[in-house]
Amino acid sequence: MAAARRASAPLLLLFSLLLFSSAEGAGAGTPGGGDGRATHLHFYFHELFSGGPNGTTAEVSPARSGNQNGSFFGLVSVVDDMLWEGAGPASRLLGRAQGLTVGASLTDGAILTVLNFVFTDGPYNGSTLAVLGRALLGAVMERPIVGGTGAFRMARGYTLSKMVDSSDPENLLILEYDAYVWH
Ligand SMILES: *[C@@H]1O[C@H](CO)[C@@H](O)[C@H](O)[C@H]1NC(C)=O
Ligand SMILES: *[C@@H]1O[C@H](CO)[C@@H](O)[C@H](O)[C@H]1NC(C)=O
Ligand SMILES: *[C@@H]1O[C@H](CO)[C@@H](O)[C@H](O)[C@H]1NC(C)=O
């Protein structure tokens, strides 16, 4: 079922984000032993991938035909997805996930995502996180945080995300995100 949905939906990435907690780490657990802060963000990524006036994706290149094992190899899509505080439609919009989704595996459904998480509300309004990594929908996806701006300048960290139930699986992808940021 998920495979069929993936095959028919060119774009697979959605991230909703919402921030749920922030803690001063006082250096504990900071990579490199610095005195930076550790912040935990929680949010939901929403992607509307079947077009229409509210679609958040644009396909630049289709997946190559004849691929096996659910591969999206060759797919390139531009996304401007929504980061919500909650999984539901009445939630607060915290920001956007802007970037690229690329089918980069010949042998499975793995994609490369290059995303800027741009926060426009909440305590990190005006700050961004740069997230670059590999994702395979279906399992918990771990992707590196490679930088940031504003409050997240010089950020390092990682995100963990997983697909959550969608009320409209043919058009809506919702991912629950946890982001662990040292900055
Ligand atoms: C697009 O979004 C607007 C504003 O939220 C909503 O009123 C409208 O029903 C949506 N259209 C579709 C096709 O989902
Ligand atoms: C991928 O496809 C090949 C060729 O059909 C097959 O031999 C292999 O078992 C598949 N791998 C997975 C993980 O499904
Ligand atoms: C976010 O920051 C911008 C720029 O400072 C400001 O215009 C906007 O009102 C802020 N949004 C919220 C929800 O605080």
Ordered list of secondary-structure elements with their pairings:
Layout: H1 2-8, E1 21-23, E2 38-48, E3 57-61, E4 76-84, E5 93-103, E6 111-119, E7 128-135, E8 141-149, E9 156-163, E10 172-182
Antiparallel strand pairs: 1-2, 2-4, 2-10, 3-4, 4-5, 5-6, 6-7, 7-8, 8-9, 9-10
The protein binds 2-acetamido-2-deoxy-beta-D-glucopyranose (3 copies).
One 2-acetamido-2-deoxy-beta-D-glucopyranose is lined by residues 120-121, 125-126.
Task: Explain what the structure shows.
The protein is mainly beta. Helices cover 4% and strands 46% of the residues. The longest helix has 7 residues, at 2-8. Bound molecules: 2-acetamido-2-deoxy-beta-D-glucopyranose (3 copies). One 2-acetamido-2-deoxy-beta-D-glucopyranose (NAG) binds at residues 68-69, 107.
In a few lines, what is going on in this structure?
With 183 residues, the chain is mainly beta. It is built from 1 helix and 10 strands.
